[in-house]
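User: Design a sequence. Structure:
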């Protein structure tokens, strides 16, 4: 079984005091039922094998042994079954997921051999983000970077076969070390085209689409000649070796 949790922070760091606040970032732990003194349920506080104190949000019991093995943290001791949470009473509000966070892409892993993609039998899924939301379609190939437990990075290519718009909790739970790269292979009539996700820039507090190279105005020959003339004039005036620039005044 797995437990979806957030960290709990005791008041004044004393073991006999109430919980001062709960963390915001969620973590998944395996549950060692043999070492626990009772049944672990949502709303309890528990210790991990390395001494982390966490608040239980949800118990997940439909994972395979392989999926559970991806999580190294283990809960081994129940600390309190009815803790007092000073920031918000006994418990916290459930997290409201955005529409983007509920989107899950599933597909088959393919291998790139001699500039050709070869299908394998391995399946993989990954979540959507604000960056890739709406950019990927069925048939596209998305490079995924896997961050392994020993610090290595592995790249895999996923041929998207299904897009789940409103995925359930069971469909969303997966290895969180999967990260899409900044580009993907878009399926076209003429084959696959390497494409970057839409990039955005912030200007004056507003988010705008980043202009492409075609949208950037080219400098006119007259402007280039004027700038070149100014540089030559600067060199002539500063040939005595000053460490600053004196520019001729235009009257």
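Assistant: Done.
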């Amino acid at each position: 079984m797995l437990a979806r949790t957030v960290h709990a922070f005791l008041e004044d760091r004393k073991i006999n005091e109430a919980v001062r606040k709960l963390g915001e970032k969620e973590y998944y732990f395996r549950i060692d039922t043999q070492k626990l003194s009772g049944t672990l349920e949502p709303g309890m506080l528990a210790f991990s094998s390395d001494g982390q104190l966490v608040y239980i949000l949800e118990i997940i019991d439909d994972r395979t042994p392989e999926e559970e093995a991806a999580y190294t943290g283990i809960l081994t001791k129940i600390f309190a079954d009815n803790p007092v949470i000073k920031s918000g009473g006994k418990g916290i509000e459930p997290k409201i997921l955005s529409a983007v966070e509920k989107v899950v892409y599933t597909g088959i892993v393919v291998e790139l051999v001699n500039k050709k993609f070869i299908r394998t039998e391995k399946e993989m899924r990954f979540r959507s983000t604000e960056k890739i939301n709406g950019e990927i379609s069925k048939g596209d190939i998305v490079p995924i970077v896997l961050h392994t437990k020993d610090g290595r990075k592995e790249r895999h290519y996923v041929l998207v076969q299904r897009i789940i718009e409103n995925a359930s909790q069971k469909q969303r739970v997966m290895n969180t070390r999967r990260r899409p790269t900044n580009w993907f292979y878009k399926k076209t009539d003429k084959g696959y085209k390497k494409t970057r996700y839409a990039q955005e820039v912030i200007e004056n507090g507003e988010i705008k689409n980043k202009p492409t190279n075609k949208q950037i105005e080219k400098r006119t020959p007259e402007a280039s000649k004027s700038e070149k003339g100014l540089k030559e004039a600067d060199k002539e005036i500063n040939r005595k070796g000053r460490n600053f620039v004196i520019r001729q005044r235009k009257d």
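Residues 1 and 63 are 7 Å apart (CA to CA). Residues 221-237 form the longest helix (17 residues).
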